[in-house]
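User: Last request for today: this protein with S-adenosylmethionine, please.
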Amino acid sequence: MENITSNATWYVNDAAFDWLYPERIQQLSKRHWTPMEVARKSAKFLTSGSGRRILDIGSGVGKFCLIGGHQFPEATFYGVEQRKELYHFAQAAKKMTATRNVEFINGNFTQIDFEAFDHFYFYNSFFENLVNEGQIDQEMEYSTGLYNYYSRYMFKGLDNRPGGTRLVTFHSLEDEIPPSYQLVDATVDFLLKMWIKR
Ligand SMILES: C[S@@+](CC[C@H](N)C(=O)[O-])C[C@H]1O[C@@H](n2cnc3c(N)ncnc32)[C@H](O)[C@@H]1O
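Assistant: Here's the final one, the structure of the complex with S-adenosylmethionine:
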């Protein structure tokens, strides 16, 4: 298909951005992918600290990373995603938008070294282990044990990061947030929270 879309057109609003993906993926957007305004606010906060490497833990089809990367070209946004299919859609969207400062990794976040990143974004990725419906697919194994394991793992990873590390959570139950992280802002009906490690 001829590329008649200027790059900025994708970032006009959520509906425009979601056209980067097939219809089935678009339909998951409201529930599973970060809304554009939330992505913008979060990226602004995460790029305001020192250090420019930001990791989205459970990056899905890459919506947060691509919006952040577009808005803040001097930072690098990384996304780790366990589902291979979603990773491929993220890579395709990166190509379509000709984005250079975003990197996607296919794998479990437990394989990732937190030390390689300065700041973190988290949209309640482990919650799918606690519910019986509404999951992205039925391809994964879900369990409360896995939720607890992942939450503890992330808790430890965050706790080991230096003072000044920034974290954004959206819809979090806060099990993965160490007390060393201080809440500095809460908006969007208290669902979007910004934290800085003391
Ligand atoms: C609610 S979606 C958010 C997607 C993306 N961060 C966004 O905001 O658009 C959570 C994603 O986390 C992924 N995920 C859940 N557990 C994971 C794990 N242990 N390692 C990597 N990805 C995980 C899911 O497959 C899902 O795509």
